[in-house]
Amino acid sequence: MAENKFTSLPCTEFLQQLASKSPVPGGGGAAALAGATGAALGGMVCSLTLGKKKYADVQDEVAALQQRLTELRERLLALAERDAEVFAPLAACYSMPTETPEQRSAKERAMSAALTDAVAVPLEIMELCAAALPLIDRTAAIGSALAVSDAGCAAAICKAALQSAYLNVLINTKSMTDRSAAEALSARAEALLAGGDGADTTFAAVRARLV
User: Fold this and answer.
1) N or C: which end of the chain has fewer CB within 10 A?
2) Alpha helices in the chain, H assignment, sequence order
């Protein structure tokens, strides 16, 4: 994948690949990229606030918010690539032979390992988006009023990314034979999804300032 990073493609080419029948990039990569976009928008609000006399009393806090959002953006971009990387072994598992007990056992072991890797990526995407949302909320509250709509967009996009990654967790846990592990992972995803409700509060607060 290193020789053809999806996140280095022009937007038009990335979207063409996303719309094609190619298995990657897919929903997980799109979720990660959306989360990175939301974090980037939050960072833009910070950039438009820094250095402005009107916001002199919050400069240090805004700078810290910008740094953290930048870190989250970069990690989410990396996960867009990682999502494609972990799908290949999983896809290969489905074509493994199952004619003998030994083959079936080998396939089950391979599937288990591949699913563990595959579910870890969207779960981490959820964690990063959940971490970004309160930062974006604070940015909306103290950042430049001229960019408050962008902060609202950032919150909405990050919530969409969170929801999208959640579905990618479920599609993988559904196939896991270790139901105890699957249920624990799904429960973690459910908790992170619930945390995304804070984005609605941010969106409503921004909307109230615009209508």
Assistant:
1) C
2) 11-19, 27-49, 59-93, 101-142, 148-173, 179-195, 198-210
pLDDT tens digit string along 74-106?
999 999 999 988 887 777 778 777 888 888 888
Collapsing DSSP states into helix, strand and coil, what is residue 209?
helix
State the burial class of residue 187 (Cβ atoms within 10 Å of its Cβ: 0-12, 13-18, 19+): exposed
The tokens describing 66, both together, are: 């910008």
Rounded Cα–Cα distance for residues 173 and 178 (Å): 9
- Which of 159, 156, 85, 82 shows the shortest CA–CA distance to 124? 82
The tens digit of pLDDT for each residue in 92-144 reads 778 777 888 888 888 788 877 888 889 999 999 999 999 999 999 999 999 99
The residue written with tokens 């699913």 in the block is 115
